[in-house]
Amino acid sequence: MSAVLEETPHIARIYGEPLLQMPQDLYIPPDAMEVILDAFEGPLDLLLYLIRKHNLDILDIPMADLTRQYIGYVDLLRTSQLELAAEYLVMAAMLTEIKSRMLLPRPPKLEEGPEEDPRAELVRRLLEYEQMKYAAHKLDELPHVGRDITLVQVFLERVTEERLPQVHVGDLQAAWETIVARAKNQRHHRISRQELSVREHMTRVLRMLDHGRFVEFIELFNPDAGVPELVVTFLAILELAKERLIEVTQQAVYAPIYVKRLESEDDGPDTE
Amino acid sequence: MMDQTQNEINHQNEMKQILETALLVSHEPLSLHQLGKIFEPEIDNDGLRTLLEEIKADWSERGIELVQVASGWRFQARSEYQRYINRLSPEKPPKYSRAVLETLAIIAYRQPATRGDIEDIRGVAVSPNILKTLEGRGWIDVIGHRDVPGRPGLYATTKQFLDDLNLRSLQDLPSLDQFVVNEQMLLTEAMMPAVEQINEEETETPSEEADAGTAA
Amino acid sequence: MMDQTQNEINHQNEMKQILETALLVSHEPLSLHQLGKIFEPEIDNDGLRTLLEEIKADWSERGIELVQVASGWRFQARSEYQRYINRLSPEKPPKYSRAVLETLAIIAYRQPATRGDIEDIRGVAVSPNILKTLEGRGWIDVIGHRDVPGRPGLYATTKQFLDDLNLRSLQDLPSLDQFVVNEQMLLTEAMMPAVEQINEEETETPSEEADAGTAA
Question: Which residue pairs, CB below 8 angstroms and at least 24 apart, start in A123-127?
Answer without folding.
Answer: A123/A58, A123/A59, A123/A61, A125/A44, A125/B121, A125/B123, A126/A44, A126/A47, A126/A48, A126/A51, A126/A58, A127/A58
